[in-house]
Amino acid sequence: MNALRQFFAELLGLFVEDGSLALAILAVVAGGVVLAAAAAPPLLVGLLLLGGCLAVLTENVMRSRRNAAQPPRP
Amino acid sequence: MSLIGAEMSNWATVAPAITSAFLASLVEVVEAFTIVLAVASVRGARPAVGGTLAGLAVLALIILVFGPAVDRIPLFLLQIGVGVLLLLFGMRWLRKAVLRAAGIIALHDEEAAYRAETAQLQEETRRQQTRADWFAGLTAFKAVVVEGLEVVFIVIAVGAGRGLLVPASLGALAACVLVLGCGALLHRPLARVPENALKFGVGVMLSGFGVFWTGEGLGVPWPGEDLAVPVLVAIFLALGLGLVAVLRSRAVELVR
Question: Whole-prediction pTM value?
Answer without folding.
Answer: 0.74
